Every structure is written in structure tokens, then in C-alpha cells.
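Question: I have long wanted to understand how a fold can be written as C-alpha cells. Here is the record:
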Amino acid sequence: MDFPTHVADESARFEAVLRDAVPTTAVPTCPDWTAADLLWHLTEVQLFWGAIVRDRLDDPQAAERAKPGRPSDPDELANLFSTASATLVEVLSTTPAATPMWMWNADGRHAGYIARRQAHEALIHRVDAEMTVGRPSPLDPELATDGIDEVLSIMYGPADWGTVLPSGPTGQILTTDTETSWTFRVAQFRGTDPDSGKTYFEPVVELLDGRSAPSSIDFTVRGTAGQLDTALWNRAPLADLDVRGDNAAFTALADVIGQGID
């Protein structure tokens, strides 16, 4: 998949929506944020990762220190986003995907995963921007399908520095448009983050492959790739999805999604 092109496309749509928005408009999907806060957030994110990739930084604090302050003028903020986005797209497009890079995800320390992550970051915040002004538009089904995979395997998945206690219900998510499925177990994760020292004991999604998949599952969730991707990111109601099977078991997945993503 051409992730840099998706970063460019989704960022352009995000910017076009927010340039026309009243800066003080509340963002319904991000409590306590205004349209200007949302624009600044993605500006910061793209400045940060643009610096990581462009300068091959192995110290995230160096990328943080390189960021300019937040402009108070709405037009200046929009122009800064445009510059940050153009830089990010350029460096992602010209850097081989296998190039080693600093990344918080231990399995994704290369430019290719940064491009993937930034495509989905731009996509979800484009959704936020459109919901802010009341003009939602469809998601690219292929990109949304990959977004489901990323959110299940990485965002809600267990870290490699802890232990998974596989005692929860099993489920399956299926896209009705791209015909892709994921089988998983809602499990408990216990571990201490070696970087922060914080100890976690919380529910996670453990994907199951063909060898570890159960012979039967407790519930299934169906929807288009766009519906499922936005629901897993808490941008659309889970109640709108087609859920079949054990409702109590589905609640275990809903609890994982409800805790959000750090």
C-alpha cells in the first residue's frame, strides 16, 4: 500500500476542512478540543515525525525540541500545518521503507511503519475534522481495512514486555466490503513498562492465527471497513455495528475499546 500518498491525501482533506472551520468550534470526538486544537495536534505530530525521518533522529526529545511554538493566528497555524505535512510526505516518499528509525513500537522501528502510522493518524483526524463541521465523507476501504488490522494488532494488542493471560471470550471481526476477517481473544495483560516503570493489568486484544484459533467463537462483529475502523477508534458507536452471538462476550471487547488509546 502506498502509505505516503495516503498521508498526503488525508492531510489535504483535513486541512481543507479546518481552514473553513471556526477555530473555536468544539470537536465532538475529542472532548475539550476545539478545531484549532485539533489542527495544532496534527501539526505537532507531523512536525515530530517529519523530523524523526528527515534527520534520522534516535532521540525523540530532539524532535520535540525542534518544534516551533503554537501560532496564535489561525492562518499562520494552517500554513504551519501545510508546511509540516509537505515535509512529512516528502521524507516518507523518498526514504526506503526498511530504513531503521526510532519508533515507540518495538516491531515497527523503520520508515515503513512510520508511514503506515501517519496515514492512519491523518485519516482518523480527518474524520474528527469532518465531524466537527458536520460534513462526513467515506473512508478508503483498503486503508480502513489496514487501519482495523493496526488497531487490533498494535493499539489494543499486548506489549512484548508483559504476560498475556488468555482466559477471556473469543470473537471475530469481518468487513462486509473488503471481505477481511480477524479472530481474537479478549485477554488480560500484565506487565511493567521498562521505559516508564508503570505497571499495567488491563484487557487487551490477542489476535489468533490459524494454529491458535478456537474451533468456535463467542461473537462476531460485522460492518464495512470504514464503519469498523472508526468504531474501533471510538469515532462511531459500536451499537451501529452488526453484532451476533453472546452479547456479554461482546461487552468484553467494548470495554477494551472504551478505555481508549494512550
DSSP finds eight helices and six strands in the chain. Helices lie at 3-19, 35-55, 60-66, 74-94, 111-133, 141-155, 225-232, 247-258.
